[in-house]
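Bench notes, afternoon.
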Amino acid sequence: MSALRLTQEQRPFYCSVKAFVKMLRLDIINSLVTATFMITISVLALTTDNTFTVLGGVLGLLAAVCCLADAALIYRKLLFNPSGPFQKSPDKI
């Protein structure tokens, strides 16, 4: 049996570089929405007098900072390598 090799036209969209870039863009949006939600909940938790609730608010803010860092790192990856991790080979004449 021969190995199945798909050409550029036959390859499904989810195997293409454009799909990888779109997934990274969706990951950036997801991280920003999550960070906004976590900041809102954490600020509300910090307004109470219960010690454990305030501790949860601080940990929530820490999680929001991690989400923002994730979004920034993914954005930087897309900014410096917009075509994805794959190298295009030059066409031979």
